[in-house]
Amino acid sequence: MVQYLKDDRDGHLYGKHVVAAIRIVRNLARKPQGSYNMREVMGSFVTKLTFREMCIVLREQKGWRQVHDFFGWMKTQLQYRPSVIVYTLVLRKYGEVGKIKLAEQIFLEMLEAGCEPDEVACGTMLCAYARWGRHKAMLSFYSAVQERRIIPSVAVFNFMISSLQKKSLHEKGLHLWQEMKDAGVDPTRFTYTIVICSYAKEGLVEKAFEAFNEMKKSGFVPEEVTYSLLISLNAKHGNRDESLNLYSEMRCQGIVPSNYTCATLLTLYYRNRDYSKALLLLSEMETCKVVADEVIYGIIIRIYGKLGLYDDAQKTFNDIEKLGLVNDEKTYVAMAQVHMSAGSVEKALNVLEIMRSRNIWFSRFSYIILLHCYCMKEDLTSAEVTFQALLKTGLPDAASCKDMLNLYVRLGFIEKAKAFIVHLRKDLVQFDEELYMNVMKLYCKEGMLADTEELTEEMRKSPLFKDSKFLQTLSLAKYGESRIIENGDKSSNVIDQPDANMLVKVDNSSDALDQLNTTALEMLLSLYMGESDASKTDYILKVLLQSARGLSVAGKLIRKFVQEGDASKAQCLHEQVIKLGYRPADAATASLIDLYGRLQQLQRAYEVFASVAESLTSAKPIYRYMINACLKCGNSDEAVVLFKGMIKKRINIDAVTISILVNAMTSYGKHQESENIIQITFQEKLELDTVAYNTFIKAMLEAGKLHFASRIFERMLSSGVTPSIQTYNTMISVYGRGRKLDKAVEMFNVARSLNVSLDEKAYANMISYYGKAGRSQEASLLFIKMQEEGIKPGEVTYNIMINMYASVGLDHEAEKLFQAMLKDGCSPDSFTYLALIRTFIANQKFSKAEETINTMQKEGICPSYAHFNYLLSALAKEGRIRDAERIYRECTRDSSTPDLACHRSMLRGYMDYGHVTEAISLYERISESVEPDKFVLSAAVHLYKNIGDELKAGSLLDSMSRMGIPFLNTLGIGSKMKAA
Q1: Which of 243, 357, 399, 881 has CB 3.0 to 4.6 Å from 234, enough for a Cys bridge?
Q2: PPR repeats at which positions (predicted)?
């Protein structure tokens, strides 16, 4: 206490003179360098400061210059003695500000002063090197420290290892870690964390987990960042279960996962399609209040896309866009990929365009996705521009090349496709097997034999295709042409090839033959057939047919030639397959017959049919297409002969073939033949389906054999075949035409009671027959009922209703319905307007009828003669001759072939009301342009007689007699005028 009072500290840590010295030296920082002399500044402190107090003043300085100058003054004082402590203080300050050269000089000075550096001094120097990234100097200095047998503290080791890790010098950091362990320095939790990170970065999974387990054994609880790192490491190496176990362990420790950990796990679930667990993790994130970042939202969008929840993906994207979180290219690309999966190419392109407009950098992957979009859209120009942009990032990937090549081929730019392949090969683009196959497919299709062989050679030299069955099969075809495999040959044949590694052994065993790539054989078969190389074609076809799927592939190729319209190749291949002792697939034979039918080459179709006819027992498709070919070529009699031949041979005839035949006979108007076929079908008790029965009923309806149609329906019910909506529709028509309205109503009600979903056609049919029976009330009620059932009336139904109102003269109802039709968005047609005109004329509203014709014309619907003639005839009958003349002129003004009905109506009006002169004038105008007509010629005879021109009247009578046209004696002139 006495000493404390003597020092006059007054409660301060240091004495007043020490505090004053610290303050004075610190204040020098405000003065420019060289503007002061430290000896003068510290003059009042000479002999007053002990060595320990000078060390305190030195330690409390903040600027390195003040440390440098004060240390220089300190060394001039009598109290100073060289010590490792004071040098360590100076080293620390120099290290903090990065004055490594000065630090090195001070360290050398310390050694020259005879001060042996201790653990702290060496550690300070090592930390200075580590802090400023002087790793080479640090490791060199560390070696010198080791030579002095000085072991740095764990803090120094942590500093050095951490510094090396930050610069990705993981190998050197791990070497230090090993030396630290060898030196017996106990690591801290921080040490383990950085070491595990380095092992992870180096991909040393086992070492990382060794350090992790050692960490836990040492009693340290790993931090979230350590767990996250190891979870990510396991996920990258496909160790799904280990990642999930680590996460469970972390949660048991009560550690809340970070965004990075959640993103890693979501990615893992996404790749393994474990979407339910992904959704559970999202719920857990919400519970733990882990706020999702853009990366997590991007993964969520991808998951929604995989689940087909496209709307949810779009909503998520919109939500994070509103939050301002969409800043990363990967998020935009994820949304674009979702749109592509949904088939919305335009939306995908729009997302990528938004990304571009926001100046977000396009990576190589973005260009790949953009290119795929344009290829899906078939926008060749944009695709080519994008492909050029992709080239600037390096050689294109195989998938992008496939997209471009397929686009050229789809759009028919074959020459561009060929040039594209040349560029790819010239630039040494790495082909994958699929791209290689696509190129080969084009070469084979275009008959480019030399290019095919050249590309095969290139691929054979690539180690990527060493085990490719596709390439091996092509090599077999090239080098094994002289080794033809006979069906009965049991020995193995080795195909000569230049490269022993690519030696292909082919024998007749199924195992060996199944190793061949049938796609390659299909391509080559197409190529050599195009080249007309018979020997090669035979060889490849033999090899192909001996493989398990060979016959199927040959059939597929026949169908392909048929689709391309190449009948000669298809038939040639068909014949070769038969020649080699095989029967082509029924579908292939049928498709070839169908092609000849479409080409109207019935004889060719018969040749194909004959080539397999002997082996046919129940080949339904072949007979069906042969019958169809006969029908397409207009030879219905041959089709019937084939049908009867099938019956005679007891070949089971399917319902589709029978339906096609009956339907064709009906369309040709051969109703008796249709009936005969139906009768044979019933006699032979052939199995029929709903469609067949519907076809039969409709055929008999069109033939007018309504009773037989009813019997067919009864047979259908007794056979247990369920009627369809079409059945009931047709049966309503059958009973309706037979004037059995009650039966039609019964049929309609039966359909409703059986919960058959009646469509508009059924209702329209029933309404029509109500209308024809004059039961407009029931028709109107059914029309309302139809709408109540949620069935929206169409144009046909509205026309039926308006026609019905027209027939009973209900013009107000017809007009009201017409307005409802317009409101419902139905466009009236010519028949609608005709019904309205009839309605207005029935009620003698001639002006409204004329307005309707004008409305038609304004709507762009050209009125027919029927529209004009209804109004013309009505006006003429009413004696409104001038109005009738006006309508007549309008009707015939633009017509090069005037309608006879209009001429008759006008002529009759003139005659009925005694306009003889006008009637004769009209006749003489039209006599040369119309066909001879009984009424027109008879009217002319009466008119000429009326004016006393017996010569002309007699001449006309003679002409009518020669043409066999009867004369109408009862026609009179002015009959209505007299009555009036």
Answers
A1: 243
A2: 83-117, 118-152, 153-187, 188-222, 223-257, 293-327, 432-466, 619-653, 689-723, 724-758, 759-793, 794-828, 829-863, 864-898
pLDDT band at 367 (very low <50, low <70, confident <90, very high): very high
| Nearest by Cα to 685 from 711, 708, 652 | 652
CA distance 760 to 782: 11
Mean pLDDT lowest among 257-271, 434-448, 756-770 = 756-770
Token duo for residue 41: 């500044």
Distance CA 762, CA 757 (A): 10
Of 77-81, 322-326, 602-606, 772-776, which gets the smallest average pLDDT?
Answer: 772-776
Distance CA 192, CA 212 (A): 7
Amino acid letter, residue 531: E
Distance of CA 38 to the CA centre of its chain: 82
Q: What is the DSSP letter of 45?
A: G
| pLDDT exceeds 90 at position 931 | no
What one-character DSSP code corresponds to residue 327? -
213: which 2 tokens? 């387990």
pLDDT tens digits along 833-843? 888 888 888 88
Phi-psi group of 774: left, alpha or beta (phi > 0 → left; psi -120 to 50 → alpha; rest → beta)? left
At residue 863's C-alpha, the angle toward residues 861 and 867, to 5°, is 140
For residue 411, what pLDDT band results from cuts at 50, 70 and 90? very high
531's CB contacts (< 8 A; 6+ apart) are: 447, 449
Q: Are 425 and 462 in contact (CB under 8 A)?
A: no
Alpha carbon distance 745, 389 (integer Å): 70
Sign of the dihedral defined by the CA atoms of residues 299, 300, 305, 306, in that order:
positive
132: its two tokens: 């400023």
Helix, strand, coil content of the chain in percent (nearest 5):
70, 0, 30
pLDDT digits (tens, 9 = 90+) for 675-720: 898 998 888 888 889 999 999 999 998 888 888 888 998 899 888 8
Largest Cα span, the chain: 171
* Helix (H) or strand (E) segment spanning residue 505: strand 505-506
Both structure tokens of 68: 């440098």
886-979 CATH? 1.25.40
* Residue 432 CB coordination number (10 Å): 15
Report, as an integer, the average pLDDT of 297-313: 88
Pairing outcome for strands 493-494 and 505-506: antiparallel
pLDDT at position 741 over 70 = yes
CA distance 515 to 585: 22
Q: In the chain, what are the domain boundaries?
A: 362-427, 886-979
Per the structure block, which two tokens stand in for 413?
A: 């730019």
**φ, ψ for residue 531, nearest 5 deg:** -85, -5
Query: Where residue 491 falls among pLDDT bands split at 50, 70, 90?
Result: very low
Decide if 667 contacts 631 (C-beta within 8 A).
Answer: no
Those residues whose C-beta lies under 8 Å from the C-beta of residue 940, and which sit 6 or more positions away, are 920, 923, 927, 953, 956
Q: Tokens for 522? A: 């299909």
Give the DSSP per-residue string, 805-870: HHHTT-HHHHHHHHHHHHHTTPPP-HHHHHHHHHHHHHTT-HHHHHHHHHHHHHTTPPP-HHHHHH
How far apart are the C-alpha atoms of 836 and 544, rounded to whole Å?
A: 70
CA-based R_g, the chain, Å: 50
The predicted-structure confidence for 496-542, as pLDDT tens digits, reads as follows 333 333 333 334 334 444 455 667 777 777 777 766 667 777 777 77
Q: So what's the pLDDT on residue 4?
A: 34
pLDDT at 738 over 90: no
Residue found by looking up tokens 């050689």 in the block: 395
Backbone angles phi, psi at 506, to 5 degrees: -125, 125
